Input
Amino acid sequence: MIDIFINITLLAFLAITAVAMVRMSNLFAIIMLFGIFSFLSAGLFVVMDAADVAFTEAAVGAGISTVLMLATLALTKDHKEKKPLGHRPWLPLAVVIITGAALVYGTIDIPAFGDAKAPPQLHVAPYYIEKSMPETGVPNMVTAVLASYRGFDTLGETAVIFTAGVAVLLLIGGRRSKQSDKKQDEGKDDEA
Amino acid sequence: MDFILGHYNYWIVIFLMMVGFYTVISRGNLVKKIVGLNIFQVSVFLLYISLSTVDGGTTPIVKEGFDLYSNPLPHVLILTAIVVGVATTALGLALVVRIKEAYGTIEEDEIHEQDHSL
Amino acid sequence: MKHNLILRVASKFLIPLIILFGLYVQFHGDYGPGGGFQAGVIFSSAIILYALVFGLDVAEKIIPANVLRTLAGLGVVIYASVGVAALFLGGNYLEYGVLGSTQVAGQHLGILLVELGVGITVASVMLIIFFAFAGRGRS
Output
């Protein structure tokens, strides 16, 4: 019972934080709220028995993402969001409400939260839960599935992370500042 | 009442998804767009983990005395998705930095104006 | 933040603990919550904290950029070569059972090596990204 109560409270906090993030225009405050948002969702993952996921979300969302966004803010030097001029807010709002209503209509058929007889619980999960310990000798099923049963998948994910690192290096890996860029451009113009 | 409690998670997830979606399509500031994408991303994580939860179940780590575990498969998918997500977010932020260096602004309207005036 | 005494003292105390915790998460991931992805992020956050408090130049002296780039590739190579090793020992790609004397021993070794590869790649890519963002700001 207590975990349902914590679940409901944390989800409500998440919704409030998200709305606050949309309504604010100070980018620094938005990024700080995003750290809080990630931390709340990490707490929610613990309540929903996903210790490994909570671990990752707490380290990544509240740690690395927030630091990276703050670094971007320091580089772009824009701390205030300018209000869009020509846009009307009701068109995106209508799109969002219609999409959301369709999705809510779709949830009516979804089995209730925590239902042990729901289809996702009956397909491959029982195999992993029963066989992973005798087959791999690893008590943590998440690690066993991650590294062994779905090894190809994880190899691909690792490659994606490596590729993202390479791409970031290609985009902003150099030491050139804006001034030196301009000087180089001027130099080229002079030569031409 | 049971129906509401059983679907509350999904409704909040959809609400968060739509908040993220709205931020992406209605705001012009590129950093805020990326924050919106991240809200959307977290809502997808929450959807998957909500589907994996079993009433009375415990964290999927084998220990004697427990025989009801949550579904480990969504945990695996989301665990990798979070780390890949931060790597792609970093890529998006790197693009924002380059756009700022090239255009001198991170507001979409002003970028479009500069493109049209060329 | 170079002149903030409290931050310097507190982070000097914290950074070894964070690195130790990262190693624990890496190698205890089979038995408790944890694994390569989490350990990599925790390990890199220790270095990021160091860079934030003591300055970027000092941090880049500890882990030079070219070492990081090599490590990022090395992690993927470790992962892929575990699969190739399984091929040579007569199994399928990434079939860890053939790596050890028994099925369980092979699985254990395979999972440990694969998680190590993941941890190395994640830690070094996170640091590469952070150094790229932080290094862009100085002229």
Observations:
- The mean pLDDT of chain C is 90.
- The longest helix of chain C spans residues 103-136.
- Chain C touches chain B through 14 residues (CB under 8 Å).
